[in-house]
Amino acid sequence: MKMFVVFVILVHVSQHASAVDLYEGEEFVLLPCEYHTFDMDDPSVVWSRYDLNPPTVHQRQQEGDEFIYQNQLYSGRTSMMADALETGDLSLNLTKLRLSDSGTYTCTVRSSRGKQRVREVQLKVKERFPPWAKALLVLLVLGLIVSGGLLVHFRQYFMSVYQVEVDSGVESVLLPCKTTVHLPEDVTVEWTDRYNRKVHLFQNGSDKPEEQNQDYKARTEMKRNLLEPGDLSLTLKYPTDRDSDTFTCTVYNRERKILMKKQVLLEVKVYQVEVGSGEESVLLPCKTTVHLLRHVTVEWRDSDNRKVHVYQNGSDQREEQNQYYRDRTEMKRNLLEPGDLSLTLKYPTYTDSNTFTCTVYSRERKILKKKQVLLKVKVYQVEVDSGEESVLLPCKTTVHLPEDVRVEWTDRYRKVHVYQNSSDQPEEQNQDYRDRTEMKRNLQEPGDLSLTLKYPTYRDIDIYTCTVYNRERKILMKKQVLLEVKVYQVEVDSGEESVLLPCKTTVHLPEDVTVEWTDSDNRKVHVYQNGSDQPEEQNQYYRDRTEMKRNLQEPGDLSLTLKYPTDRDSNTFTCTVYNRERKILMKKQVLLKVKVCQVEVEEGAESVQLPFKTTANLPEDATVRWIRYEPYRTVHVYKNGSDRPDKQNQDYRDRTEMKEDLLKTGDLSLTLKYPKERDTGRYCCNVYSKNIWRWKTVQLTVRGRTRNRSSSIDPTPLMADQSV
Ligand SMILES: *[C@@H]1O[C@H](CO)[C@@H](O)[C@H](O)[C@H]1NC(C)=O
């Protein structure tokens, strides 16, 4: 369940083009490309982006990687499988993703036979969801799995430390550290935080502010009464949520021997305000009971330190404000006591979820007051199954809207639907949404601007914003909806004869529909048109392996049977039904997960079998190769009707055997004789001919007998010590 959600959110693989969408900062992405380079003379492969100069992203040739042509942007961030040219898996591993990595990547194979553009992959690196939105989704999942167990554990851990809780906004907090033992005069007292940064240092009878970390400058004061009972408590001024931390008070004698160590857990609570996206405004409270002078400066900032609102010399300072908050803030100006410096933030949306800090400075820039407010903007959530005909994204208002409003529905980047001058504006719409949206037009009060989105797939998971502008482009209303699209998941073991990918409809389908099953790389898995299957349209991976139910009578069952699934088939499959005019009638998705085949054997066994059964009657010119990864070794080759021991690695000479009539029966299993512990590893079988390509991984573990014996011995005394 957890894996599934993470997969859906982070790796959006398009069904429109071969496209990969993900978020900046991702550890890596694998851009897929496969080609039968193992059959070619002196092959090389180049990954390029033709919008760059130089265009080369990565180059691999028989001798290894060639970096001299590489574009600087990719320096140190690309890699390919060590044995890419031998296996035909030419995928590019791009690490530490940046927004600027978005673009079209072309995988080109060259050989003595010429040059071939194999495939293009669109990569789109998006900005991340705000951390809270992600946390929310992960928490939802964790909540289901852990159901609280984790929290209990954390609480117990914290209980062992003295805890101080304080509200953000107080002038100071006292971190206690007392001792009843007599301390010598020349002790050193060191207060540190969790990162071991110096919070306060007292040495040789005086404070040492120069040793202090920047974050704590001018904010600490230590009691100096070191006589018994010694009180070394620390006063920390203007605590904010950033000060929530574990502080350690350590006392050393002259020889740096620790005399005492105490910890305090400080929790600075931040006032929380929750509001629904769609409210006209939200109030961030900041009040003070102290008398404020006329010349104070009030600064509201967010947690990115952007200026939200600045008030100085008796008036608002709009030019100091960050662009993002322009025209959206209003501060109470009643600075007489009790001073109310609360801020009104208009049209809050999920991106406004943030910690806001209100700081009051004197004319000398001395902090008089600091207070924080955590704003949480809740977004209405809609959940739908992939396969539903449509989903409704609600946006309603009870206020009367003028006739000439402009309504804009957007996802986080693009225009989804625009309505202006009393009609829809499809030319403004992003093409991913073309023909898929319908807005209610009943703008009478109460105005219902809800949007119908047709054929939702997991690519549509996003936050949608409905904004209403008046004629002067002033915002009248803003509302958000989080759309979650669930995908049906099927999991099978590798080795099953077949798996059923369900796709059913209860609506009556016309006779002349086209049904297309595609995978997430947009490869055609199965095509049904004009009343019959169209195998010539099918990708070579799926050739001879699919069967679609043809009973298109209502209720229409368009489920697909995929035969002999292997780990390579783990993918998101989309079933789309078109009418004669190529209009989509239905779209449904299935996430298939096929487990990697695991084989275990003990060293000393006569032989072990690496199983691979696929469809019978494979083409006679098919080549079968068993290889092993890391280190790359050719284990067995069968070509032109016979075994090719000359192609085989030394290690496997005379130790491998394949079945009789293997192409006829489709049983490509490999027998490996006298398996040794060092045979443990990942094996892969590749069958290739003009029309067919099959692929299966087998993870082999050979348990060594010597290792077994030694691990059954009692742990050594040292290990026993450590485990206590
Ligand atoms: C891609 O490279 C990174 C960094 O070297 C590595 O951690 C990751 O496992 C690689 N991914 C794949 C699928 O090989």
TrEMBL record:
Record's keyword terms, sorted: Cell membrane, Disulfide bond, Glycoprotein, Immunoglobulin domain, Membrane, Receptor, Signal, Transmembrane, Transmembrane helix
Subcellular location field: Cell membrane
Gene Ontology CC terms: external side of plasma membrane
Protein name: Ig-like domain-containing protein
PANTHER family listed in its UniProt record: BUTYROPHILIN SUBFAMILY 2 MEMBER A2-LIKE-RELATED, T-LYMPHOCYTE ACTIVATION ANTIGEN
Topology of the protein relative to the lipid bilayer: Single-pass type I membrane protein
Residues that span the membrane, as ranges: 132-152
SMART domains: IG, IGv
Region (Disordered): 705-724
One example of a Gene Ontology biological process annotation: cell surface receptor signaling pathway
InterPro entries: Ig-like_dom, Ig-like_dom_sf, Ig-like_fold, Ig_sub, Ig_V-set, T-cell_Activation_Regulation
Organism of origin: Dicentrarchus labrax (European seabass)
PROSITE patterns: IG_LIKE
Record domain Ig-like: where: 24-122, 171-265, 348-477, 479-591, 597-701
Signal sequence annotation: 1-19
